[in-house]
Amino acid sequence: MSIIKIRRTNCIVAVFNDDEVLMGALRKSREKGYGIIEVFTPFPVHGIERVLGVKRSNLGVAAFAFGCIGLLFGLSLTGYTNTFDWPMNIGGKPIWPLLSFMPILFECTVLITALGMVATYLCISRLAPGVIPVIYEPRSTADKFVVLLEIDSRADEIRNNMKAWGVEELRDDVHVDHNMPFPIPFKLK
Amino acid sequence: MIRRIEFTSRNKTIFMGASILGVVLIILGLIVDHNQPGRFWANFLLSGFYFTAFSVLAVAFMAIQYLASGAWSSGIKRIFEAMGMYIPVGIGVIVVIFLATFIGENNGMHAIYEWTHADVVKNDVVLQGKSGYLNMPFWLIRGVFFLAIWALAGRAYRKYSLNEDEVGGMLNYNKSFRLSAFFLPFFGFTFCVASWDWLMSIQPHWYSTIFGVNVFASSLVGCMTLTNLIIIILKKNGKMEWVNENHMHDVSKFMFGFSIFWCYTWVSQYLLIWYANLPEETPYYLMRMHGGWKSLFFINLSLNFFAPFLLFMMRDAKRNLNWVLFVCIVLLLAKYIDWYMIIMPMTAGKDSGFGFYEIGFWLFFAGIFAYIVGASLAKANLLPKNHPYLVESLHHDI
Questions:
Q1: Per-domain residue ranges for chain B?
Q2: Which residues of B are less than 8 Å from A60 in CB distance?
Q3: Which chain A residue has its CA at the smallest distance from B315's CA?
Q4: Alpha helix positions (H), chain B
């Protein structure tokens, strides 16, 4: 699978040791208007979405859509097989007994929703098959908190401020390669 | 952090006034709808069981939280403890129904349970076969025993929790944890048996194996509804500022989820009976789906399932104080209708309706419930002091 490089941004990798320090630095960076491309944490940090200004995902809308598709799938499956293609009279019940199809409709809805949500989640989390994950700092999977900061004309100011706000390590030899086969659906700014 | 609420004389007047108003309405009902013992005692059982079941579930929910090491609920656990204090009133309900049987042929258990009439049992082979289990002394012994154990467990949790406020440490938490491990299996079994005794045996020929689970789901929804209601009332009065929309969201999720679970068990029961079409099972639904009961049958399903499902589906709906208050009121009504549909058709029958008896008995028990919960909440700090998960609950964020 060929990988298209869409965006190439110069940035620095800031490594933090503590989540409270990280949150403080992020808060101040947002105030100053620095471009934060991505944050990697070893565990979910509560309230970080609010600090970064990430909007709540619309995963629920996707779930509802997949649920509707699943319900329609169940309706057409039961309706076609048991009512139109080969009508069956079971115990004198109606020819399209919605009530006895309810388990099937329910399970179809749940199945399609679950599978669809997994697919949606993999897509928007950039975990599609064939993607080689870019690891900016291997220790972000162990005990370090890693921030990718976009370098613009204020590079020196960003470096100095980061040091003042408690960064443990700064590396500026990295650029971001978004090697996704399709455009990235969202951007952190 | 010591935060107490005051149980003022104004509160006392309101709650006692509600109970007294209830008694007045019942007396009015006795005058207006006289000679309806079936309806009278059915309402006594309905409203008595309504609040008792919710308080029992409060104790069970606390046990679940201990056993699952649930942290988010520790900031509101005093509400569950206070609700658990109501359970002894349930013993009163059972004992009064039993004792009223001796007043006359049409009172107490005779008015509610068909199997207590000796002449009916004599001509009924099925009831004779069940008489080893369905007889009056055993019914009373079971009911009082179950309620006593539940009440004692509620009191034990309360005692450990209050002791924890004073001494701190893990000792009382571990005791509560161990108690939960014994209490939950006991509760799961006995609550099902109690629901057979008090509700299902009203129609002794009919039985459904999932009935207990259905009543359990109803009760848990009711318990969470009352919890949310108490939180909202306290918050509107400027108390409990550490409880925010995150806690309310979690309580509302239980209301939402178990409303769906209620429908799941309801459909499981209905679907099999409808499909199998067996003569001893279908009369239960035939009676409720035809004639005057038909509209209430569908109102029951819409209010208990479709209303919370649609009103609570959005995330923001579960976090908005006034919206949650609205859904709470809908669900309190829905749970009343749910058990009304179970109890009334066989007991009150043609006499049933919605009048002085229904409102009176509900108000009477609601007043007692509010009084006991209010007094218990005021007796202790509203915020448990040394609970090991307290800090996590205060920083709850979802």
A1: 9-391
A2: 314-315
A3: A60
A4: 9-32, 37-67, 77-84, 87-100, 109-112, 118-122, 125-130, 136-167, 171-198, 211-236, 245-276, 282-289, 294-301, 307-311, 321-347, 356-379, 390-394
